[in-house]
Amino acid sequence: MSVNALYDYKFEPRDKVENFHGMQLLYLYWPHHLMYCSPFAFLVQPDMTFGAFIEEVLKPAVAAHPDAGNASFLDARWQLNGEPFTPDASATLKDSGIDHKSMLTVITPELNGIAGSAS
Amino acid sequence: MAVKNKKLNLKDKYQYLTRDMSWEPTYQNKEDIYPDERFEGIKITDWSQWEDPFRLTMDAYWKYQAEKEKKLYAIFDAFAQNNGHQNISDARYVNALKLFLTGVSPLEHAAFQGYAKVGRQFSGAGARVACQMQAIDELRHSQTQQHAMSHYNKHFNGLHDAAHMHDRVWFLSVPKSFFDDARSAGPFEFLTAISFSFEYVLTNLLFVPFMSGAAYNGDMATVTFGFSAQSDEARHMTLGLEVIKFILEQHEDNVPIVQKWIDKWFWRGFRLLSLVGMMMDYMLPNKVMSWAEAWEVYYEQNGGALFKDLERYGIRPPKYQDIANDAKHHVSHQAWSTFYQYGHATNFHTWMPEKEELDWLSEKYPDTFDKYYRPRFEHWAKEHAEGRRFYNNTLPQLCQVCQIPTIFTEKDDPSMLSHRQIEHEGERYHFCSDGCCDIFKDEPEKYVQAWLPVHQIYQGNCEGGDVETVVSKYYHINIGEDNFEYIGSPDHKRWLAIKGKSSDEKAGGADKNAA
Ligand SMILES: [Fe+2]
Ligand SMILES: [Fe+2]
Ligand SMILES: [Zn+2]
């Protein structure tokens, strides 16, 4: 469907990757840890390695959570845009198939948030 | 017409002063004069069928409104002279006003603009007059709200730049984009969105809680504004119902179009009201009723009766109503959690509920609060007590349509976010729900342009790359005064001074180890 309008209604998407000066957006969702109210929106370098992403971006982001110390993220169950995904710590984000505005989900089944409340 | 020396009855007077002031064009094409009336596909066969239940004429309108205005400003004056702010329940209450002034009063102004615009676009005189009066009402609401709250600006932080903040601050893009969406639609969609879905179906959920909230918490200025606006609101609600019935009666082809708009605007309104839910359950020191109770009375019962009544036109209740009804047990807690963790980027203070308040929440939300939210809040309270007040140092993912962070959970599994994702013309888009995702799919061209605050910060369009610069320079939030935890804030200290208590009595563990 398209917009009913009085003129030809067509606009560029506002968040194209070109607008991010060589960087890209990457979302990350850690289920059962709703203390973080929504998935994180990170600004990342496409040629950053997955291992560096875990160490430099993900770990500081979740550091305040009591489960963070017990999480082994590289060994966890991952999804990329809803599909199963096997991380390779030495591969870059780009070579891992993680494109602009992708969402990663990292599932740690043994960790269920504050007092098991999914928080 | 023979002029008789006799007072006109209301009906005749209305006829002369409204309908009879309109005319049929003779040398211009009617469709050229009202170019916006047809492109949405709505078919109007006979404008004279439009009924005006109030039959108000402009001369009576001015007289009546001026009278109300006089009384209102007399009370504002008395409130200021008597230092009315000292009689409120607790200074935490003022934070609800900060949210109202930045989030709602600018919408009154947006409504004024919207009605002024559509009031020009209908070829029916009755609809034009109704829109004209509502435009003036809404402008007055915006002004009187600012005047009602301006007294608080002398004594509390965060109220100094509401219009500027409305255009820029991340969470205020939620109400702003709601009205921008409506105002950039055609005139019939605007009326369905604002007059019907908002004013008629949902407005009680905004107005009643805020105004009773003001009354319960000793804020006489805001209560008086509420009374003064009440008769306007009654007119607006009546217009909302009249609009929908009129459109539906005019042509059967209008039914599916209106149904689609009702689905869309119910969902958008419901999402917007998450802010009100959190205000009721968390920001009012003296509680009126819970958000879940308000939703039951003002939506499930009143809305239920309304949609029963509209059945004969072929209209069914809004899509995803079941999701909204279930969400009454969750949204206020989810919204407050969000503002609590991003309290370094807000123009109002946040805090954890006190012990009695937690118990009230457990009682009002027996199936959800203790299971999903209380452990989180107790953890945060403990962290704060130990000098680690929790702030989220990352930016959140936002919904492409409602622009709220994607914080909402699945109806059938409140431990999982109801995140949705699609690809459209090679770009990825993320949503908080099927409701918002459907709205996008129906008009993608409209929402691909969304000005999402998080993405704008990352694109470098908000005067800085770090949150602190954005908050102070771009948002005009005074760091350390307007934002952060309530306990130990300048507002809190001032309140204790007003009440003659020392500031360390309650401010234990007060610090700002902020983002
Ligand atoms: Fe209003
Ligand atoms: Fe109104
Ligand atoms: Zn949404």
Automatic annotation (TrEMBL), chain A:
<dbReference type="InterPro" id="IPR043010">
    <property type="entry name" value="Phenol_hydroxylase_sf"/>
</dbReference>
<dbReference type="GO" id="GO:0018662">
    <property type="term" value="F:phenol 2-monooxygenase activity"/>
</dbReference>
<protein>
    <submittedName>
        <fullName>Phenol hydroxylase</fullName>
    </submittedName>
</protein>
<dbReference type="Pfam" id="PF04663">
    <property type="entry name" value="Phenol_monoox"/>
</dbReference>
<dbReference type="InterPro" id="IPR006756">
    <property type="entry name" value="Phenol_hydroxylase"/>
</dbReference>
Automatic annotation (TrEMBL), chain B:
<protein>
    <submittedName>
        <fullName>Phenol 2-monooxygenase</fullName>
    </submittedName>
</protein>
<dbReference type="GO" id="GO:0004497">
    <property type="term" value="F:monooxygenase activity"/>
</dbReference>
<dbReference type="InterPro" id="IPR007029">
    <property type="entry name" value="YHS_dom"/>
</dbReference>
<feature type="domain" description="YHS">
    <location>
        <begin position="413"/>
        <end position="451"/>
    </location>
</feature>
<keyword id="KW-0560">Oxidoreductase</keyword>
<dbReference type="InterPro" id="IPR009078">
    <property type="entry name" value="Ferritin-like_SF"/>
</dbReference>
<dbReference type="InterPro" id="IPR012348">
    <property type="entry name" value="RNR-like"/>
</dbReference>
<dbReference type="Pfam" id="PF04945">
    <property type="entry name" value="YHS"/>
</dbReference>
<keyword id="KW-0503">Monooxygenase</keyword>
<dbReference type="InterPro" id="IPR003430">
    <property type="entry name" value="Phenol_Hydrox"/>
</dbReference>
<dbReference type="Pfam" id="PF02332">
    <property type="entry name" value="Phenol_Hydrox"/>
</dbReference>
